[in-house]
Each structure stands twice: as structure tokens, then as C-alpha cells.
Design goal:
Blueprint: H1 3-18, E1 26-31, H2 41-48, H3 51-54, E2 57-62, H4 69-74, E3 80-84, H5 85-93, E4 99-103, E5 110-115, E6 131-134, H6 138-150, E7 158-161, H7 166-171, E8 177-181, H8 182-192, E9 196-199, E10 212-216, H9 218-223, H10 225-244, H11 246-256, H12 264-276, H13 292-304
Parallel strand pairs: 1-2, 1-3, 6-7, 6-8
Antiparallel strand pairs: 3-10, 4-10, 5-8, 5-9
Helix pairs in contact: 1-10, 2-10, 2-11, 8-12, 10-11, 11-12
């Protein structure tokens, strides 16, 4: 039996243990954090291959909206959602009921990038005084400042908030550097240019992180433990299948989102980057497993930077409770 079938079997067993065979499929909704992309590929694979159906679930992947997936989950609009690591901690600090239940990637996918033809940028300290095309979060300032100071710089730079227009601004030289997700924007730059060079966060004093998760609320887990286990294990099987069958998984993602007009070759290249970099499946074979040490390190980094604030906007006086922020209890155990 293949690994993904073993994963799925555990999810099915859990659902059948509490659900009569004649019962209707249990509805589950999932909110995306962005328009459909390769970070979401395991969800679409699990749906197309019937993994959710076999687990007794009727899963609906909700259309992306401007409202964060974390807000949709915390306010019971969606059962599960794709949560960014930083958003998980900041929203929890402000009182949101959120729990990470599956690590979409096993290591950081983000990086600081600049054009390869910039001879004046060799190390992070060279970024002092330069222009950053940003996205408007406090995390960015803490991240970039740490990277520059770790290399001996002052950490002083100018920020222009541009959102996704930052990538065009970088390409045409309007800004000196920005941040990107290597497995999406980075792959696009490799294919279409201009050529880039990059600094990896963890090489310059920033903790490695999972970047994003599938998450839900503690309230949902308490009321729907078996459904949650069936959904997470079926999703785990979907991601494992995508790694083992990248061509088929690519076709599934593209076909399921025909209205988005995804470039099939680009999606395939992005998925290969996720596979080659051991993002979706760690070098140790982990699929979905959340590393407590990474969670603790990032929580400490955000707390020390003063980014974690309560519902009144006041910085937390003590580090957050990391243990309640995540769980691996709903994952299947695989060889």
C-alpha cells in the first residue's frame, strides 16, 4: 500500500468509527489565503482523487476573498483556512481563536531578493539606505532590520508600500529590493527574468518557520474532533500524492481553477521547486508535521520585536502560549 493510501486509510478509519455507513457526507469548508496556487495543491488533489469523499466528507474550497482566512475561521465563517505563520501569532495575540493543524511547508519559502545586476549589493549590510518595496506589515521591518544588522549594518532603509506591484517595481528598478515567495514569484523570475539574487532569512538571524498552515479554531476541534482528523489526514494524503505524482497534480490544480487561467508550465515548475526544496515533504519524510522548536523560535522573535499586540493594540507583556497555537494530533502517523 502506498504512503498516501496509508494516510488516507487512517482518516477513513477515524470517520467510520463514529459515522454510520449510510450517513451523509459531513460538510467542511476551507478558506484560501490567496488565489489558488501550488501551496493549495494538496487540497485540490484530495478533492479530485476522492480522498475527502472516502473519508466521509463533502469539502468546499471557498473562493479567495480580501478577508483573511484567519478572520473567516476565527469568526466561524469557514471551518478551516490557510493561515500564515505571522498571521497565526498576531491574530492569536489579539484574541482570535486559531490553531495550526497542518504545516503546508516544512521550511521557509520566503526570501529577500534584488536584481542580479546590482553590483552594489553583495551582503545584507549593503541594503542600508536603500529602497524597499513592501507590503505594509510590521513583520517586514523586523525581518529586514534583523537581516541587515546581523550582517553588521544599521538596519536603516526606506520603505515604499506597493503590495504585489513591488515585483514590477523591482524589475524596472524603481525599488532596490523586496520580499518574495521563492516557490512562486522566485520561480517566475527564474523563467521570465530579470535575474535575481537573494538572501535567505535563516542565514541572517531570523528563525526558520513553516511559513503557512492549514488551521482551524479550538472551538471547532472540540466540537468536531473526528471530522477534523478525517479532513487533515485526507489533505495529508493529497499533498503526499502531489509530491509523488506532480504531473497529475498540476493538471488537477489547473483544471479545478480554469477561471484563474493558470499557466500549466509555470504551475508545474512551481510544484517542482516545492518538491526539490523539500518544502511539501521534508527530507525526513514529514508531510504536514509542525515542528515545535520552529514555532517557539518564531513566537519569541515576534514577541521580542514587539509585533504581538492584544486586542487593544498593546504589545504583549509576556511571550505567547505556543503549545496551544498548534497541534499534530490530527495528522496520520506514517512510516
Amino acid at each position: 500500500m502506498s504512503i498516501f493510501r496509508k494516510i488516507l486509510a487512517l482518516g477513513v478509519a477515524a470517520s467510520l468509527a463514529v459515522t454510520p455507513a449510510i450517513a451523509q457526507a459531513v460538510p467542511v469548508t476551507v478558506a484560501l489565503d490567496w488565489t489558488p496556487n501550488t501551496n493549495h495543491i494538496g487540497l485540490y488533489v484530495a478533492q479530485a482523487k476522492g480522498f475527502y469523499e472516502e473519508a466521509g466528507l463533502a469539502v468546499e474550497i471557498l473562493p479567495y476573498t480580501d478577508t483573511s482566512a484567519g478572520a473567516l475561521v476565527a469568526n466561524r465563517v469557514a471551518d478551516f483556512g490557510i493561515l500564515g505563520s505571522i498571521g497565526l501569532f498576531t491574530q492569536r495575540a489579539a484574541g482570535a481563536d486559531l490553531v495550526a493543524t497542518y504545516a503546508l511547508v516544512q521550511t521557509e519559502t520566503g526570501r529577500l531578493v534584488f536584481r542580479a545586476d546590482r553590483d552594489d549589493i553583495e551582503t545584507p549590510s549593503d541594503l542600508d539606505g536603500k529602497i524597499y518595496g513592501g507590503f505594509g506589515s510590521a513583520w517586514e521591518s523586523a525581518l529586514i532590520g534583523t537581516i541587515i544588522r546581523h550582517d553588521g549594518g544599521t538596519g536603516e532603509f526606506e520603505t515604499i508600500t506597493l503590495g504585489t506591484s513591488a515585483y514590477e517595481a523591482l524589475a524596472n528598478g524603481a525599488v532596490d529590493f523586496t520580499l518574495e515567495v521563492y516557490t512562486w514569484e522566485g520561480v517566475k523570475a527564474e523563467r521570465d527574468g530579470p535575474a535575481q539574487r537573494a538572501f535567505r532569512y535563516a542565514d541572517f538571524g531570523v528563525p526558520d518557520q513553516h511559513t503557512n498552515f492549514i488551521g482551524t479554531s479550538a472551538a471547532y476541534l472540540a466540537a468536531n474532533a473526528d471530522t477534523a482528523r478525517a479532513f487533515i489526514t485526507a489533505s495529508q494524503a493529497g499533498y503526499d500524492y502531489a509530491v509523488a505524482h506532480p504531473d497529475e497534480a498540476t493538471d488537477i490544480l489547473v483544471a479545478a481553477n480554469a477561471d484563474v487561467l493558470l499557466d500549466r508550465d509555470f504551475v508545474r515548475a512551481s510544484l517542482q521547486a516545492l518538491i526539490d526544496g523539500h518544502y511539501l515533504k521534508g527530507e525526513n519524510g514529514a508531510v504536514g508535521t509542525i515542528d515545535r522548536a520552529k514555532m517557539e523560535a518564531m513566537a519569541s522573535f515576534l514577541f521580542d520585536a514587539g509585533i504581538l499586540k492584544d486586542g487593544d493594540g498593546v504589545a504583549l507583556a509576556s511571550p505567547p502560549d505556543v503549545a496551544s497555537a498548534f497541534t499534530n494530533a490530527y495528522l496520520a502517523t506514517t512510516p
